[in-house]
From TrEMBL, chain A:
It is found in: Periplasm. Keywords: ATP-binding, Nucleotide-binding, Periplasm. It holds the Pfam family SBP_bac_8. PROSITE patterns: TAT. GO terms for molecular function: ATP binding. This is ABC transporter ATP-binding protein. It comes from Bradyrhizobium guangzhouense. It comes from the Bacteria.
TrEMBL record, chain C:
This is Carbohydrate ABC transporter permease. Gene3D superfamilies: MetI-like. The chain crosses the membrane at residues 21-43, 82-106, 118-142, 154-174, 195-220, 254-275. Belongs to the binding-protein-dependent transport system permease family. It is found in: Cell membrane. GO terms for biological process: transmembrane transport. GO terms for cellular component: plasma membrane. Keywords: Cell membrane, Membrane, Transmembrane, Transmembrane helix, Transport. Signal peptide: none annotated. It comes from the Bacteria. Residues 83-275 form the ABC transmembrane type-1 domain. It is a multi-pass membrane protein.
Length: 430, 300, 290
């Protein structure tokens, strides 16, 4: 009996000891090795794929170790900001189009131009794909996948209602009519054809671009005026009145994430999102989903959408092994073997060579994403002027003002005036 | 506070006091004070986390006092939340603690069940569920329908969203309940026996024995819950997804502070906001302590 | 139940059994309301992902244990590791917190020393500062100590009574212990250390149990500390492990999240059930005289 007790205790002791060893001391890296830290956001599937690529890379680089760190989107930015502020940033880090300007302009990222083409192989990237990682003319990010704004819609439902699925050349009004028809045909309490897009910044950006405007001017001011915004807010006000898009108290359930999106909650049939999110949406929706463009500007309009990186690799300006970090980045984006392992999980590969290898291996969802990118490739416009400092706050202002109009606290005209004033003030503050 | 030092407080006594206090003192000077002072310094700077802080004098405080509409919005939300959630939560916790402080069968199980909501804390499960209970076609409205009331979508309506967060706070009443229970358990049984012999009724026993003897614990719960409610962050963060919406109706003070610090890279301004909050909380805490001598009874 | 509803409010005081039954009915109804979310989480852990959202039913239509399997061993590190890490951090925290906070609380509640009021006010003051703004200076501090990516930033503060909540809690309880007991012990020749050890601590078992319960649960549930300080997945705590299933912008594994969330509650529940015994029994046996 006592023998058993002893062995059990020592077992537990060993277990705790092991955990404490890792926890308290960390794992010592063998002498003479290059140890790279790599950090990205994502969930399980991305972790598995990324890990496989790292293992493959280490197979041909026995002198290296890669320490991978991973978190979900929200947590990622809090930790990255803390680590960067503490001068302890990871060597290789995943960047988002929205944040790259903030980080690059504050000197947190390494400009990569000097590493092209030797360490960083961008030969199979289109010039547009290379440009999408540039800030103020220098390369700070390398696209891990092409992406664009896209409408995700409930294909199964629209088909079962006997209605026409949305297609790429439908105008704003046509989409609105379709949404109203869906509302009418579905006959469900609190259900509407599409989301209220009035507070959706990427959607506004497309709408503005179609009329030759933009969210920001090249000088870093707001690129629209009261009149534009009145029209925009009035359009959505009308959509709500017609029952084509979600009522304000339904729309407010959406917190800007896939799980709280009204499509996932079964409240709408069409939502405005990004093409690489199709997989995430499909995973929690029972009905079959489809992908289409944002509404068209109609006759004589300029292109509204543009290709942007779904996510990028960047290298920290604090990295002490920049050369090795850049080589690893290059392997991820240019190597076909790595590409096969990554698939289109982070978006459609920007390198044409990798894309050619990957495309035949894809399932339906993956193919839908690739098809979508090729469908819009000849319809997209150039990159808009970059967001100035402080621009991140404006999407919250837009959301709030659209809610104020939706809940009847402001008229579209007053809302427009307030929005332009607040957005200008935000940019002035920086 | 137990009597201030008198001339008789010998150095020997003082030394003993400081010896007991040593771990805390080391922690305070080693881990707490430095970061607090740094944040005080940062509140006088423009600091974007990624580049070096730049001294701007009192500019951040001036902006808070004169030209920040979001500050007043956040203040309004926070005060309302404190005023509603603290008394409700404490009343509920005390009521349940009294109910569970009896010799009934199965009470340990009930105690555990009532504590369970506080165990899950602020998780994804809670955020999804709160939506399912308080949205337009949620459980609450289905129940209201039975009595002929057509309720709004509570959680996503700017007039009612805050109340769903108050409900969340009250639902997670576990910690003050446990503290009340521990307090009730420390009241000696023979006090009640003596009262019963004197013929005191149950309600008399409550007002004359239970409540007075419970005041130190009640005071603790009041102070701590008030501080916590002023600093409430996670409920709004998980329910509104960090937006504080709809129309800033759940923009708690610390949520606003967090947005400024980590979403918009204004750590200097956020630090100033934090210190303004410290002052506000300190005033309330000081008031509680000043009035406590009239209603808190130590040393039963 | 029908019978009881009619009796509500007019229960004769001597009818103890009816009263007890009424209690049980009220408590049962309240329990169901309290438990609904947890039951939903439990049900969700058996549902396929596409059935989780927009469905409030408590009974999964397709019952499957797959999410548990995926959750336990789906990440690069098994969940058992996270449990072990959380257990180490939480248990160390309980020991550290109860020890250091009871020492400080005893000083504040029972001893007299110069500057006592000042330190007490400062101690309370540390409760008031939102942690978001001290996070980065603290991170830099721990980075310089070379403690980042270890458990030390999570455990050492507990041994140094950094969470003033617990000091204040224990102060309030210590102060309601009758002073005559100290004085009696002092007459018997006990110094402050012995009084702390043989009078105050034994009489405060409920309060200490409360502190232990809270420390364990809050440390177990904490994710912000681990989020900032632990980088290596081998050292992740359960809360970080849980968050690894979800990415709000991409594809998440909700089933695995809810399955592991359910498992994660078990140790908390067990810990609570065990310690609440101390909380309840502690004082009943001491026969304390008021």
């Amino acid at each position: 009996m006592s023998g058993f007790a002893l062995s059990r205790r020592s077992l537990i002791g060993a277990g705790i000891g092991g955990a404490t060893l890792v926890g308290l001391g960390g794992l010592p890296a063998a002498a003479g090795q290059t140890r790279l830290r790599m950090f990205w956001w994502g969930a399980k599937e991305r972790a598995e794929r990324t890990d496989k690529v790292n293992q493959l890379y280490l197979g041909s680089h026995p002198d290296m170790t890669i320490a991978s760190e991973t978190l979900g989107w929200t947590d990622y930015w809090a930790r990255l900001a803390t680590q960067t502020a503490g001068r302890n940033a990871p060597d290789v880090l995943q960047m988002d189009y929205r944040y790259i300007f903030e980080y690059a302009r504050r000197g947190a990222l390494l400009p990569l131009d000097a590493y092209v083409p030797k360490a960083l192989n961008l030969s199979d990237f289109s010039p547009a794909a290379v440009d999408s990682g540039k800030v103020d003319g220098k390369i700070y990010g390398v696209s891990l996948g092409l992406n664009s704004t896209a409408m995700v819609y409930d294909k199964g439902l629209i088909q079962s209602l006997g209605l026409k699925e949305p297609v790429w050349n439908m105008t704003w009004n046509e989409i609105g009519d379709l949404a109203a028809e869906i509302t009418k045909a579905a006959k469900r309490d609190g259900f509407t054809g599409m989301e209220d897009g009035g507070g959706n910044e990427p959607l506004l950006e497309v709408w503005l671009a179609q009329r030759g405007k933009s969210l920001y001017t090249a000088e870093g001011k707001v690129g629209y005026d009261d009149k534009d915004m009145t029209e925009w807010l009035a359009f959505w006000s009308d959509m709500r009145k017609r029952g084509a898009s979600a009522a304000p108290d339904v729309q407010a359930l959406d917190r800007g994430e896939i799980d709280s999106n009204l499509l996932s909650l079964g409240k709408i049939a069409m939502t405005f999102a990004h093409s690489n999110q199709l997989v995430g949406f499909q995973a929690i929706n029972k009905s079959k989903l489809g992908l289409s463009t944002f509404p068209d500007g109609g006759q004589g309009a300029k292109p509204g959408q543009y290709l942007k990186p779904a996510m990028m690799w960047s290298v920290s300006a604090q990295s002490k092994q920049a050369e090795a970090a850049v080589q690893l980045v290059s392997y991820f984006i240019a190597d076909t073997e790595a590409g096969k392992l990554l698939g289109v999980e982070r978006g459609v590969p920007a390198s044409s060579a990798v894309r050619n290898v990957v495309t035949p291996m894809l399932d339906d969802l993956g193919r839908a994403m690739v098809d979508y990118i090729s469908l819009i490739s000849d319809k997209v416009g150039p990159l808009p002027p970059p967001p100035p400092r402080g621009a991140g706050e404006i999407q919250a202002v837009l959301r709030r003002v659209n809610e104020q109009v939706g809940f009847g606290r402001l008229t579209p005209a007053d809302g427009a005036k307030q929005f332009v004033a607040e957005a200008s003030a935000v940019l002035a503050r920086g | 506070m137990a009597a201030a030092h008198t001339p008789e407080t010998s150095w020997r006594e003082s030394a003993t006091g400081y010896l007991f206090l040593a771990p805390w003192l080391i922690g305070f000077f080693g881990l707490t004070l430095g970061p607090a002072l740094v944040s005080l310094y940062l509140s006088f700077t423009d600091y974007d986390l990624l580049s070096n802080p730049r001294w701007v004098g009192a500019a951040n405080y001036v902006r808070i006092a004169t030209s920040d509409p979001k500050f007043s919005a956040a203040m309004h939300v926070t005060f309302l939340y404190v005023a509603l959630s603290v008394p409700l939560k404490l009343a509920f916790a005390l009521l349940v603690a009294m109910m569970l402080n009896r010799g009934l069968r199965g009470l340990p199980l009930y105690r555990a069940i009532f504590y369970l909501p506080s165990l899950i804390g602020a998780s994804v499960a809670v955020s999804v569920l709160w939506r399912q209970v308080f949205s337009g076609d949620g459980l609450l409205n289905q129940a209201l329908k039975l009595v002929g009331i057509h309720g709004p979508s509570w959680i996503s309506n700017p007039d009612t969203a805050l109340y769903t967060l108050v409900a969340l706070a009250v639902w997670q009443f576990g910690s003050p309940m446990i503290i009340f229970l521990a307090g009730l358990r420390q009241i000696p049984k023979d006090v009640y026996e003596a009262a019963e012999i004197d013929g005191a009724s149950r309600s008399q026993q409550f007002w004359r024995i239970t409540l007075p003897l419970l005041t130190p614990v009640l005071f603790f719960n009041l102070v701590v819950q008030t501080i916590d409610a002023f600093k409430a962050f996670t409920p709004a963060f998980i329910i509104s997804g960090g937006t504080g919406g709809p129309i800033d109706s759940t923009l708690f003070y610390t949520l606003y502070l967090y947005q400024e610090a980590f979403a918009y890279f204004r750590m200097g301004y956020a630090s100033a906001l934090a210190w303004v909050l410290v002052v506000i909380i300190a005033v309330f805490t000081a008031l509680s302590f000043l009035t406590s001598r009239y209603w808190v009874h130590y040393d039963g | 139940m029908v019978d009881l509803a009619g009796q509500d409010g007019v229960t004769p005081p001597r009818d103890g059994r009816r009263r007890a039954l009424l209690y049980h009915v009220v408590l049962c109804l309240a329990s169901i309301a309290m438990l609904y979310p947890l039951l939903w989480m439990l049900a969700s852990s058996f549902k396929p992902d596409s059935d989780i959202f927009g469905d409030a039913s408590l009974w999964p239509r397709h019952f499957s244990l797959a999410a548990y399997w995926r959750g336990w061993s789906g990440l690069q590190v098994t969940f058992g590791r996270f449990f072990l890490n959380s257990l180490v951090v939480s248990l160390c925290s309980v020991v550290g917190n109860v020890m250091s906070c009871s020492l400080a609380a005893y000083a504040f509640a029972r001893l007299k020393f110069r500057g006592q009021k000042f330190w007490f006010a400062l101690m309370l003051g540390t409760l008031m500062l939102p942690y978001h703004v001290t996070l980065i200076p603290q991170y830099i501090l721990f980075l310089n100590l070379d403690w980042v990516d270890t458990f030390l930033p999570l455990i050492v503060p507990k041994f140094l009574a950094v969470d003033a909540f617990f000091i204040f809690l224990l102060v309030q309880f210590f102060r309601s212990i009758p002073r005559e007991l100290d004085e009696a012990a002092m007459i018997d020749g006990c110094g402050p250390w012995r009084i702390y050890w043989i009078v105050i601590l034994p009489l405060s078992i409920p309060a200490l149990a409360t502190a232990a319960i809270f420390t364990f649960i809050w440390t177990w549930d904490d994710f912000f500390g681990p989020l900032i300080y632990l980088n290596d997945m081998n050292s992740y705590t359960v809360q970080l492990g849980l968050r690894s299933f979800v990415d709000s912008t991409g594809k998440s594994d909700w089933g695995a999240l809810f399955a592991m969330s359910t498992l994660t509650l078990l140790p908390l529940f067990v810990f609570f059930l065990f310690f609440q015994r101390l909380l309840i029994d502690g004082i009943a046996t001491t026969g304390l005289k008021g």
